[in-house]
Automatic annotation (TrEMBL):
PROSITE patterns hit by this protein: BULB_LECTIN (PS50927)
Bulb-type lectin domain span: 114-212
Coiled-coil regions, chain positions: none
InterPro entries in the cross-refs: Bulb-type_lectin_dom, Bulb-type_lectin_dom_sf
Species of provenance: Burkholderia savannae
Protein origin, superkingdom: Bacteria
Listed name of the protein: Bulb-type lectin domain-containing protein
C-alpha cells in the first residue's frame, strides 16, 4: 500500500526496465554476484514479490500500487521471474544485454532457456527476444513489422507494415500469430497443427518454429 505522504509510483519500475538496467550495469562492470536489496520497497522501484496485476485485483481501501501502474499488463509474479533471469545472466547462462527480457522465468520442458517463445508465450511491442549468444534480437515494431536485427542492421522481417501491432503469440496449436490492438490477426507462420512447438531465434540469426 502506498503511503499517503509520498507520491504514488515514485520510482516507476517501467515493466522491469529499471531493475534490468541495474542488473546489466552490474554484470557489465564485472560483478560476479548481485543482491536485489530492499526487495519490498514497492515505491522505490525494486520490489520483486508477487503483487496484484491490476487495480481490480487490489483491495478497495486506500491506494495500492499495482503492476499496471506503468501502463503494462503483467502477471503477478513478473518481478520474481526477472530475479530468476538476473541469476541466469550472472551465472553466464544467458547473455548480458541491455534489452529487457520478453519472457523472463523458467521455460516449459523441452523449450530452450533463452531465445525462445514457448507455447502461449508472446512478444509485445517494446521488449526484444534475444538469441542465446546475444548477437541477434527480434523486435515487434509499432508499425507491425516483426524484425530480426544484428546490431543496427535488419536481417529478416515478416513484411507487415502500416499496422498498429500489439503482440506476437506462439499459440499452443503451433502457429505463431501477430495480432493488432483489436485482436485481429495480421500475420501467421502457417505452422498450425504442431501442438507444443516453440519459436526460437537461433544464434545464426534465423527465427524458426520448431518441435511439436
Amino acid at each position: 500500500m502506498s503511503s499517503p505522504d509520498k507520491p504514488a509510483n515514485q520510482v516507476p519500475r517501467l515493466g522491469g526496465a529499471f531493475l534490468w538496467r541495474q542488473v546489466y550495469n552490474a554484470v557489465s562492470s564485472g560483478a560476479s554476484a548481485i543482491k536485489i536489496a530492499m526487495f519490498d520497497e514497492v515505491n522505490e522501484g525494486t520490489a520483486i514479490f508477487k503483487a496484484a496485476g491490476k487495480r481490480g485485483d487490489a483491495p478497495d481501501q486506500g491506494y495500492w500500487l499495482t503492476l499496471d501502474a506503468d501502463g503494462r499488463a503483467l502477471p503477478s509474479d513478473w518481478y520474481l521471474r526477472f530475479a530468476y533471469e538476473a541469476g541466469r545472466v550472472v551465472r553466464g547462462e544467458s547473455p548480458a544485454t541491455d534489452v529487457v527480457p520478453a519472457n523472463p522465468g523458467p521455460q516449459a520442458a523441452g523449450v530452450p532457456a533463452c531465445g525462445a517463445l514457448g507455447p502461449n508465450q508472446g512478444l509485445a511491442v517494446g521488449p526484444a527476444l534475444v538469441s542465446c549468444d546475444g548477437r541477434f534480437k527480434l523486435v515487434l515494431q509499432s508499425d507491425g513489422n516483426l524484425v530480426t536485427y544484428q546490431g543496427g542492421a535488419a536481417v529478416w522481417s515478416n513484411g507487415v507494415s502500416s499496422q498498429i501491432a500489439a503482440r506476437v503469440v506462439m499459440q499452443a496449436d503451433g502457429n505463431l500469430v501477430e495480432y493488432d490492438t483489436a485482436g485481429r490477426p495480421l500475420w501467421n507462420s502457417g505452422t498450425a497443427g504442431r501442438a507444443g512447438a516453440y519459436a526460437q531465434l537461433q544464434s545464426d540469426g534465423r527465427f524458426v518454429v520448431t518441435g511439436g
